[in-house]
Design goal:
It holds the Pfam family Response_reg. Keywords: DNA-binding, Phosphoprotein, Transcription, Transcription regulation, Two-component regulatory system. The chain is of the alpha/beta class. It has one domain: Response regulator (Rossmann fold), CATH 3.40.50. Helix 3 packs parallel to helix 4. The structure holds calcium ion.
Length: 129
């Protein structure tokens, strides 16, 4: 578990059940989890927070959707190299393509297996320069 020690993950997710599940799993593996529950909270976090080690980004969100947020995130000073892993519904391939174009690094489709999410997070964290 040492590879995840003190790694900070920003989770942008409005669905409480999913947010609870992800937080539970990540904290159990030693990650620190910051949660933004809608688009406004995410923008506040971008503006005020230190860049996290990785961002989990839901697409369908109140106020500002995940696509807009990815674009805004990439424009923040110091955030250009933060890995972004999208959480998306299976049917929304248009969103996946657009998000990758805007600077997302990878995606997981809902409903996801916790082990798959964890594996993709670890792969992105290993790839950081
Ligand atoms: Ca959502």
């Amino acid at each position: 578990m040492s590879e995840s020690a003190s790694k900070r993950i920003l989770m942008v997710e409005d669905e409480e059940d999913i947010a609870f599940l992800i937080r539970y799993m990540l904290e159990r593996h030693g990650f620190v989890v910051d949660h933004a529950a809608d688009g406004r909270q995410a923008l506040e976090y971008f503006a005020q927070g230190e860049p996290p080690d990785l961002t989990l980004m839901d697409i369908m969100l109140p106020y500002h959707d995940g696509l807009e947020l990815i674009e805004r995130l990439r424009a923040q000073p110091g955030w250009d190299s933060v890995p972004v892993l999208m959480l998306t519904a299976k049917a929304r391939e248009v969103d996946i393509v657009r998000a990758l174009e805007l600077g997302a690094d990878d995606y997981v489709t809902k409903p996801f297996q916790p082990e798959e999410l964890l594996a993709r997070i670890r792969r992105l964290l290993r790839g950081r320069r």
